[in-house]
C-alpha cells in the first residue's frame, strides 16, 4: 500500500464523554520524515481518559482519534526516513526526539523542541494537516503525536522507536507510556539508591511502574498509598513493603509516613493526579534531602499547593515526563532490559479485549478494575 490511502477501522471520539465510535476512516500515506504503522496492540492510559472526558476545554477538538500506548509494525515510510523500514517492530512515543534541536542535543532534557508532548496539538508538525479523514473527506484530528486507536496511524519518525524484532510486542506496548514513565521516574529522574525509602501515591499502572523501578534499584522500604483497598494485592506482587489507605487513617498520610520512616522517605512520587496528594507527597519526604516527583496530570488552572518558604526545609520537588527517557536513543536498550526479565511488564496487563470492545476497556479503567487492558487490533 506504499504511497496509497488506506481504509481501516478506527475508534473515533465525537465529543466529551461520548462512547467512541468504531468506523471506517481513510489514512493518508506518510509524508517526508513520517512513518505509517500498523498498530497490533494498544491500551488505555489515564491521560486518554482525561482527554476523553474533555476536562480541559482547549483540548476539545473533534472528531479525534485518541490513544498513545501501543506497539506495531512499520507499513511504509515517507521520504528521508532512514532508520526504519517496512516490517520493523516499533513503539510510538508521545514525547518525540528529533535528535537535532538544542534540547535533543542536551543531556539535561528529554523534551524535544518540535515533538515534545503537547496535548493541545492535533495536526502533523510538517504541514499542519491531518493524515486521517472521514469517508466524506473531512479531517479527523490527531492526539499526542500518536493516535493509536486506529488500525493504521501516521507519526513523525521522531515519535517512532524501532525495537528488537524478538521483543514480545504485547509487553512492549507498555514501553510506549506507563512503564517508561514510572520506571524512568524512579531510575532517571529520582535516581533511587539502594537501601533508600520510597512512597508512591496512587497505585495505577504508572505508580506500580515506579514501585517496580524502586524494587529493581533495591530500595529497602516502598510504601504504596491508595484510596482503593484492592490495590494492596497487586502492590505487594510488584514489591511494596507497606500499604496505606488514607481513608483508614486518623491522621494525615505524611504524619504516618514520617513516623514509619524516622522523619520521612527519601523519595516520594505523586501518581494520582490530585493536588492534595501532591502536598501529602511533598511533606512525606525527609527534610534536608527529600525529593518529590510529580507524575500525575492536573487540569488547569492549578498551582502547586506549597508555600515558597517550605522549600527552605531542603525538600525538593520536580516533574517527570516520559520518565526522563530520550525515547529514540534509550528505549531500544530499555526494551532489551525488559526482555531479560529484569522488569515484570506482564504484571501490568490485567485484561485483554478485541479492539471493537474499546468502550468496555475505558470502563474498566474508570472503575479502577484494570491496570492496563490490552486491545488486540
Ligand atoms: N490518594 C491516593 N491514591 C489515589 C487518590 C488519592 N487521593 N486518588 C486516586 N488515587 C489512585 C486511584 O485509586 C488509582 O489506583 O491513583 C491511581 C491512579 O491510577 P490510574 O487511574 O490507573 O492512572 P495511571 O494510568 O496509573 O496514571 C496516573 O499519571 O500519567 C498520569 O494522567 C495520568 O494522572 C494520571 C496518573
Ligand atoms: Zn500515558
Ligand atoms: Zn529535538
TrEMBL record:
<dbReference type="Pfam" id="PF00107">
    <property type="entry name" value="ADH_zinc_N"/>
</dbReference>
<dbReference type="InterPro" id="IPR036291">
    <property type="entry name" value="NAD(P)-bd_dom_sf"/>
</dbReference>
<keyword id="KW-0479">Metal-binding</keyword>
<dbReference type="GO" id="GO:0046294">
    <property type="term" value="P:formaldehyde catabolic process"/>
</dbReference>
<keyword id="KW-0862">Zinc</keyword>
<feature type="domain" description="Alcohol dehydrogenase-like N-terminal">
    <location>
        <begin position="32"/>
        <end position="164"/>
    </location>
</feature>
<comment type="similarity">
    <text>Belongs to the zinc-containing alcohol dehydrogenase family. Class-III subfamily.</text>
</comment>
<keyword id="KW-0560">Oxidoreductase</keyword>
<keyword id="KW-0520">NAD</keyword>
<dbReference type="GO" id="GO:0005829">
    <property type="term" value="C:cytosol"/>
</dbReference>
<protein>
    <recommendedName>
        <fullName>Alcohol dehydrogenase</fullName>
    </recommendedName>
</protein>
<dbReference type="InterPro" id="IPR013154">
    <property type="entry name" value="ADH-like_N"/>
</dbReference>
<dbReference type="GO" id="GO:0008270">
    <property type="term" value="F:zinc ion binding"/>
</dbReference>
<feature type="domain" description="Alcohol dehydrogenase-like C-terminal">
    <location>
        <begin position="205"/>
        <end position="326"/>
    </location>
</feature>
<dbReference type="Pfam" id="PF08240">
    <property type="entry name" value="ADH_N"/>
</dbReference>
<dbReference type="InterPro" id="IPR002328">
    <property type="entry name" value="ADH_Zn_CS"/>
</dbReference>
<dbReference type="InterPro" id="IPR013149">
    <property type="entry name" value="ADH-like_C"/>
</dbReference>
<dbReference type="InterPro" id="IPR011032">
    <property type="entry name" value="GroES-like_sf"/>
</dbReference>
<comment type="subunit">
    <text>Homodimer.</text>
</comment>
<dbReference type="GO" id="GO:0051903">
    <property type="term" value="F:S-(hydroxymethyl)glutathione dehydrogenase [NAD(P)+] activity"/>
</dbReference>
Amino acid at each position: 500500500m506504499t504511497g496509497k490511502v488506506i481504509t481501516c477501522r478506527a475508534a473515533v471520539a465525537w465529543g466529551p464523554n461520548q462512547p467512541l465510535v468504531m468506523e471506517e476512516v481513510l489514512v493518508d500515506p506518510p509524508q517526508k520524515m513520517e512513518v505509517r504503522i500498523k498498530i497490533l496492540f494498544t491500551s488505555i492510559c489515564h491521560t486518554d481518559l482525561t482527554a476523553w472526558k474533555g476536562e480541559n476545554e482547549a483540548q476539545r477538538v473533534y472528531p479525534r482519534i485518541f490513544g498513545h500506548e501501543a506497539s506495531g509494525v512499520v507499513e511504509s515510510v515517507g521520504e528521508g526516513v532512514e532508520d526504519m523500514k517496512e516490517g520493523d517492530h516499533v513503539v510510538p512515543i508521545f514525547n518525540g526526539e528529533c535528535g537535532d534541536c538544542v534540547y535533543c542535543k542536551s543531556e539535561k532534557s528529554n523534551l524535544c523542541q518540535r515533538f515534545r508532548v503537547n496535548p493541545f496539538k492535533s495536526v502533523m508538525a510538517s504541514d499542519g494537516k491531518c493524515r486521517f479523514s472521514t469517508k466524506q473527506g473531512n479531517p479527523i484530528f490527531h492526539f499526542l503525536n500518536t493516535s493509536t486507536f486506529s488500525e493504521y496511524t501516521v507519526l513523525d519518525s521522531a515519535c517512532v522507536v524501532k525495537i528488537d524484532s524478538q521483543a514480545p510486542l504485547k509487553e512492549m506496548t507498555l514501553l510506549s507510556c506507563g512503564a517508561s514513565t514510572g520506571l524512568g521516574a524512579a531510575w532517571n529522574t529520582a535516581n533511587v539508591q539502594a537501601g533508600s525509602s520510597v512512597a508512591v501515591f496512587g497505585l495505577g499502572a504508572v505508580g506500580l511502574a515506579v514501585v517496580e523501578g524502586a524494587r529493581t534499584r533495591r530500595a529497602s522500604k516502598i510504601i504504596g498509598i491508595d484510596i482503593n483497598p484492592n490495590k494492596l494485592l497487586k502492590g505487594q506482587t510488584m514489591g511494596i513493603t507497606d500499604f496505606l489507605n488514607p481513608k483508614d487513617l486518623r491522621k494525615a498520610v505524611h504524619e504516618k509516613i514520617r513516623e514509619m520512616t524516622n522523619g520521612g522517605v527519601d523519595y516520594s512520587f505523586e501518581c494520582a493526579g490530585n493536588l492534595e496528594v501532591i502536598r501529602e507527597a511533598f511533606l512525606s519526604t525527609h527534610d534536608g534531602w527529600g525529593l518529590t516527583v510529580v507524575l500525575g496530570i492536573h487540569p488547569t488552572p492549578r498551582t502547586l499547593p506549597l508555600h515558597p518558604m517550605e522549600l527552605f526545609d531542603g525538600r525538593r520537588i520536580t516533574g517527570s515526563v516520559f520518565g526522563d527517557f530520550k525515547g529514540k536513543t534509550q528505549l531500544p536498550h530499555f526494551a532489551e532490559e525488559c526482555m531479560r526479565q529484569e522488569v515484570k511488564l506482564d504484571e501490568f496487563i490485567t485484561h485483554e479485549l478485541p479492539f471493537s470492545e474499546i468502550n468496555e476497556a475505558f470502563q474498566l479503567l474508570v472503575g479502577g478494575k484494570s491496570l492496563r487492558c490490552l486491545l488486540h487490533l
